[in-house]
């Protein structure tokens, strides 16, 4: 047997004493296996009270109450809940100013504070309002709260249920229920939950009406409720009929409607808008064709006192003077744009007329019915006649025998004017064809032109061919059996141009001739002689007294006895023993083909030299002191527009008296 010494006995006794003291201390501190200072609570369904996870320590409990302060854990859109978290210390006393955090399933519910936190009050209570996440949310959830007490974190939870909120629209109110044209009214509707206004959250309500959809009224399409009521302003824009207003909401199963009475706006005026054709001219009956119409279309518009178009208004039409044209429609109603049209067909005589549009039943205060008249519409034949056809040219003698005018600058321009049998310009777009036997006429896109206001123009350029072939090309002017047809001139340097058009039955035409003028003087006739001067030698003029002026006349021609180009300068140069008194004209004028009887623009009867005549006058510088006869000499210098120069030398004697 082993005997323990006294020292060992004393050591063992000390250890037992320490163990006993520790056990006593733990018992005094509420031990029992838990973690000191750590506690929690689990909500008790139905009562909303939590059970601390460590009863003898600090705790947080969770409870739910409704708006009436009654205990409830049933949440809906119409019945929000208040979550109450109570924080107590280990002695069961309230803990003020403790930070409490609230958390739950955000698909079911949301808290009034976005952070989900609150501080406890003096009673140790922190509250948070909880609403449904949406009106359609349903199910069951749990609220978990945590609180910090000193160095300790406490937690607790409680369960709740969520039911979908059933809402309904109340009566739709329109105040006032009837308005004048372009007036306003207020439209309102309550959103109800279980028969009472639902104010839990804003809900969108949709407003619509037929007039608003047609743009004839303004009405907000979506309005959010404010304190359970959605309000919108309705403004008439000329609807003119009773309008049915409808409200609906995604949160309510059915819609609501109300009827608004709207007075029709009164017509203020009828306006003339337009006429077709745009030039307000139609052709006599049976004379239609390309770009010509026998029918005029007239448009009018009815507006109210607010300058807005009125639809569905009856308009009556009449023609003045009566009987000259046929009115195809005497009455009609305006369309959605407030517009109405009528058409008029021409008669058998040229005339002008107006159409009057009248609004029946608008007479008041001694004033007649509202009406207006169109612009004046003209009726003409619109087809050209031979006697009213004119062909002209800007330059009948361009420099073309030796010179090509090129593609950018025409040698000359031909103009054609057309009128109908009553002297009115033909319709725009009447085609005119041009042909020539020398040079080229027209453009690369067309060999003629289309009339505008009864006329048009084409360019002519000098180029090959320069020699005419009889009858080529065949034109309305030189072939066929129509009156006025004649062969083209075959004179050298003369071009024949034919302009023609048709009314669909017969062809009208006009002929013109121009010169391809040479660039040099080659035939000169002195004082009316029929024999040209010898330009290779100096021409001697007859003697004249020094006391008198020497005057003579020259006709200047090109190699074909045709005039020199228009604009050719004629001057006296190299004067010796003489001074120039005058030389007229100083330029070759524009010269049309002519015969002994006068101008012949067609070129059919050209005869003899066609050149320009110039008169020169010179005097002696020694007329007062003449003692011996002197010989004067000079040149007549001719310069064409293209710079070609010809000199004609002359001399003569001044005798003393």
Q: What is the C-alpha radius of gyration, as a whole number of Å?
A: 57 Å
CATH architecture of the largest domain: Sandwich
- Tertiary shape: elongated
* Cα distance spanning the termini: 202 Å
CATH superfamily of the largest domain: Immunoglobulins
Mean pLDDT: 87
Number of helices: 2
Estimate what percentage of residues fall within beta strands.
35-45%
Unreliable residue runs: 1-55
Structural class label: mainly beta
Oligomer: single chain
Broad CATH class of the largest domain: Mainly Beta
Q: Please indicate the count of domains.
A: 5
Any overview of this molecule?
The chain is mainly β. It has five domains: 40-163, Immunoglobulin-like, CATH 2.60.40; 167-262, Immunoglobulin-like (Sandwich); 270-379, Immunoglobulin-like (Sandwich), CATH 2.60.40.10; 386-515, Immunoglobulins (Immunoglobulin-like); 523-655, Immunoglobulins (Immunoglobulin-like, Sandwich), CATH 2.60.40.10. Helix content is 4%, strand content 44%. It is built from two helices and 51 strands. The strands form eleven sheets. Strands 1, 2, 4, 6, 8, 10 and 11 form a seven-stranded mixed β-sheet that branches. Strands 12, 13, 15, 16, 18 and 20 form a six-stranded antiparallel β-sheet that branches. The chain is elongated. The model is unreliable at 1-55 (pLDDT under 50).
């Amino acid at each position: 047997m082993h005997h323990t010494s006294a020292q060992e006995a004393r050591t063992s006794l000390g250890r037992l004493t320490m163990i006993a003291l520790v056990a006593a201390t733990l018992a005094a501190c509420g031990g029992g296996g838990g973690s000191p200072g750590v506690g929690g609570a689990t909500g008790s369904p139905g009562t909303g009270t939590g059970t601390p996870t460590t009863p003898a320590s600090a705790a947080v409990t969770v409870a739910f109450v409704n708006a009436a302060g009654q205990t409830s854990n049933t949440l809906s859109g119409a019945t929000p809940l208040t979550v109450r978290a109570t924080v107590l210390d280990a002695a069961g006393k309230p803990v003020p100013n403790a930070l409490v955090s609230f958390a739950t399933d955000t698909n079911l519910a949301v808290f009034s504070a976005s952070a989900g936190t609150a501080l406890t009050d003096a009673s140790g209570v922190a509250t948070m309002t909880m609403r449904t996440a949406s009106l359609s949310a349903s199910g069951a959830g749990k609220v978990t709260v945590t609180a910090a007490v000193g160095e300790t974190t406490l937690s607790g939870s409680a369960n709740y249920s969520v039911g979908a909120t059933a809402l309904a629209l109340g009566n739709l109110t329109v105040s006032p229920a009837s308005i004048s044209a372009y007036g306003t009214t207020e439209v309102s509707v309550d959103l109800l939950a279980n028969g009472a206004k639902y104010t839990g959250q804003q809900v969108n309500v949709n407003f619509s009406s037929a007039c608003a959809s047609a743009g004839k009224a303004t009405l907000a399409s979506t309005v959010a409720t404010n304190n359970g009521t959605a309000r919108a302003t309705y403004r008439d824009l000329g609807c003119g009929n009773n309008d049915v207003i409808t409200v609906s909401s995604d949160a309510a199963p059915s819609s609501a409607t109300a009827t608004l009475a709207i007075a029709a706006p009164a017509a203020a005026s009828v306006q003339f808008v337009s006429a077709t054709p745009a030039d307000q001219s139609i052709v006599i009956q049976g004379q239609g064709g390309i770009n010509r119409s026998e029918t005029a279309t007239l448009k009018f518009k009815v507006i109210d006192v607010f300058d807005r178009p009125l639809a569905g208004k009856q308009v009556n039409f009449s023609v003045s003077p009566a009987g000259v044209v046929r009115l195809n429609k005497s009455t009609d109603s305006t369309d959605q744009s407030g517009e109405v049209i009528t058409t008029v067909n021409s008669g058998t005589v040229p005339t002008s007329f107006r159409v009057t549009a009248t609004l029946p039943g608008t007479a008041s205060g001694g004033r007649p019915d509202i009406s207006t008249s169109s612009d004046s519409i003209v009726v003409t034949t619109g087809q050209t006649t031979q006697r009213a056809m004119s062909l002209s040219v800007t330059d009948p003698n361009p420099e073309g025998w030796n010179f090509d005018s090129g593609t950018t600058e025409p040698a000359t321009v031909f103009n054609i004017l057309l009128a109908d049998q009553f002297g009115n310009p033909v319709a725009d777009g009447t085609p005119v064809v041009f042909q020539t036997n020398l040079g080229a006429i027209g453009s690369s896109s067309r060999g003629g032109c289309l009339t505008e206001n009864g006329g048009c123009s084409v360019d002519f350029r000098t180029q090959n061919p320069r020699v005419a072939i009889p009858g080529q090309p065949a034109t309305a002017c030189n072939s066929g059996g129509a009156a006025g047809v004649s062969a083209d001139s075959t004179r050298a340097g003369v071009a024949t141009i034919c302009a023609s058009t048709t009314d669909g039955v017969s062809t009208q035409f006009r002929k013109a001739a121009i010169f391809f003028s040479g660039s040099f003087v080659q035939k000169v006739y002195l004082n009316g002689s029929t024999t040209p001067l010898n330009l290779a030698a100096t021409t001697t003029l007859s003697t004249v007294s020094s006391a008198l002026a020497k005057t003579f006349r020259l006709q200047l021609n090109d190699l074909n006895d045709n005039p020199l180009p228009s604009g050719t300068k004629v001057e006296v140069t190299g004067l010796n023993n003489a001074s120039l008194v005058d030389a007229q004209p100083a330029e070759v004028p524009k010269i049309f083909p002519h015969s002994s009887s006068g101008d012949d623009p067609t070129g059919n009867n050209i005869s003899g030299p066609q050149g320009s005549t110039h008169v020169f006058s010179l005097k002696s510088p020694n007329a007062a002191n003449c003692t011996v006869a002197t010989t004067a000499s000079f040149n007549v210098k001719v310069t064409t527009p293209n710079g070609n120069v010809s000199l004609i030398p002359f001399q003569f004697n001044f005798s003393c008296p």
